[in-house]
Amino acid sequence: MIVGIDLGTTNSAIAIWRDGQAELIPNALGDMLTPSAVSIAADGAVIVGLAARDRQSTHPADTATAFKRYMGTQQSVKLGKTSFTAEDLSAIVLSSLKADAETFLGEPVTSAVITVPAYFNDRQRKATRRAGELAGLKVERLINEPTAAALAYGIQTREEKEPFLVFDLGGGTFDVSIVEMFDGVMEVRASAGDNRLGGEDFNETLIDLAKPRIDPQGALAKVDPVLLRELLRVAAESCRRALSEAEEAPFTVTALGQDFTTTITSSEFEAQAAPLLTRLREPVLRSLRDSDIRVDTLSEVILVGGSTRMPIVRRTITRMFGRFPNAAVHPDHAVALGAAVQAGLKSRDAALDEIRMTDVCPFTLGIDHSVADGRGGFRHGIFSPIIERNTPIPASRVSYYQTISDNQRSIDIHIYQGEAREVLGNVKLGSLRVPLPSGKAGDVGVEVRFSYDTSGLLEVDVNVPRAGTQRNLVIVDDDDAPDQADVAARRAVLAAIKRHPRDDSHNQAILARAARCYEGFIGDRRDMVGTWIAQFEAALATQDPRIIDPARAQFDAALNELEGDRYL
Ligand code: AMP
Asked: pTM score, two decimals?
């Protein structure tokens, strides 16, 4: 049996082709989406999915998320006592999906079609393939995510040369691709994007709108800033989701023993989010320009990614294209379903071939810099992107910086690749020290030029015009693929990790959620959650499902009442 897998940055999903159609497979919790999160418990056992994601706030040092961003690099994270690369963590997620499919189908699952972003380069693709193999899957094929989405919408049943535009707006990134089929070969004709635009940005703008309204007196300044950020983010997320269903929705933060609340209407949100909605235009225009396709010749505009569920986004798209987008397939399911379509074609030896697009820069490249904190000081270690991910290559871009102290003697340019705002979360590629002429803070300018070509060569040129100084560094993207012995050793490490029994997934998930609530609340609510945890642990200790199951249902209902029904 060949399955189709969407190995996503935030969530993953698995589907099969059965009885002439693609069908999603639920995980042990009954959910179609499994968060791409891995956590290691105190007893060394691995936890995957929702429970792991809930542990992100309570056990950050033992939990990893969004590791797909580092696929193909040797960067590793230490969880518990073991170090893991993005490839290892992906293998853990894949083997959990594989186990879900085996339980659901009642037969072994040995092969898979796995999706990757269109802009993944060879190294990232090879790493994804190895992750599949580490999980015990024969990777029949890797296909581009936008191609998979187009397959879920039936591009293969259309006439030739009917281009589809895939509009993918997720939690943190925006990708536009134009996919076309010609002579039985699928091609991503162009892909463009904005890797700093997604649901999280819409949350931020909603907070800017709501915060002065819920707290005109500034009372919330008394709340711990980290906790306040999280409370505002959660309030924004749930208000924004509610606005996908209704014309108005409450925005509520509970803190300091009271509710701070307001009502936000859809049109207020739309007006506030106008600058973000405008940013959706440019990548669309670029992809049309790059592929030389006119809007009126597009056969379909299809929606992928959770954030395309926002009506304000759909309205913007309708205006932009002069027609309604096609959202017949659930935007979070399309990629996995399309992978299953390809798996179905493959098992009948009718798989479609694909031309790959790899002439874009796969990661954002930039340097470390300091930004003013607004209180006269600086925050160091902030990433300044120079060549953004998805830029067509070869590319050459220059950015300008100034000194931050008087008579600064030199400047250290540290070069990183990655997407995190703080450089610590990115991969360091090299550094360069450049002497500076004396001058007042802010008076000495430094130009940093990055040139990146198709062979993976990054050239860094630093120029200090005032002194006429120039420095140059060439960074070669050498192939760091592990050899076979290394793969075997890693497989042994992964195989040795303990896994909780599948039946235990619900219990783990609810305990992780409760621990997160315990940390998120204070006062009476926190005490209440503490009591519930103790009661549930006592139920678990009986090891009797007749006691555990009703106790868990009650616990779940209580938590829902406390923080609202949870969303994935
Ligand atoms: P993805 O990266 O594709 O999983 O998308 C996740 C993003 O989709 C998050 O930013 C969510 O806030 C957003 N999202 C999911 N469901 C909804 C919804 N019903 N309304 C608005 N945004 C949503």
From this structure: 0.80
Candidates 52, 45, 53, 1; CA nearest to 25 is: 1
Mutate to test the pocket of ligand 1, among 307, 309, 313, 419 (most ligand atoms within 8 A of CB): 307
Q: CATH says 365-497 is which class? A: mainly beta
Query: Is 237's C-beta closer than 6 angstroms to any atom of ligand 1?
Result: yes
Is-contact 511 42, C-beta < 8 A? no
Which CATH number is associated with domain 199-275? 3.90.640.10
Topology (CATH) of 2-197+280-360: Nucleotidyltransferase; domain 5 (3.30.420)
CA 171 to ligand 1 center in whole angstroms = 6
Number of H helices, E strands in the chain: 15, 26
Any atom of ligand 1 within 6 Å of the Cβ of 333:
no
What are the boundaries of each domain within the chain? Answer: 2-197+280-360, 199-275, 365-497, 503-563
Q: What is the mean pLDDT of each run of 10 residues along the chain (568 residues)?
A: 94 95 96 96 93 90 91 86 94 97 96 91 87 95 94 89 94 90 84 85 97 96 88 94 96 92 97 97 90 92 96 97 95 97 86 66 87 84 88 85 92 90 85 94 94 83 92 77 74 81 85 88 85 92 89 93 66
Torsion angle, CA of 489/490/493/496, rounded to 10 degrees?
-90
Residue written as token pair 């691995």: 46
Residue 170 alpha carbon to ligand 1 centre in Å: 6
Q: Which residues contact 103 (CB under 8 A, 6 or more apart)?
A: 28, 502
- Alpha carbon dihedral 330, 333, 334, 336, in 10-degree steps, equals -170
Q: How far is CA 46 from the centre of its chain?
A: 21
Pure H helices in 170-280: 199-214, 225-243, 266-272, 274-278
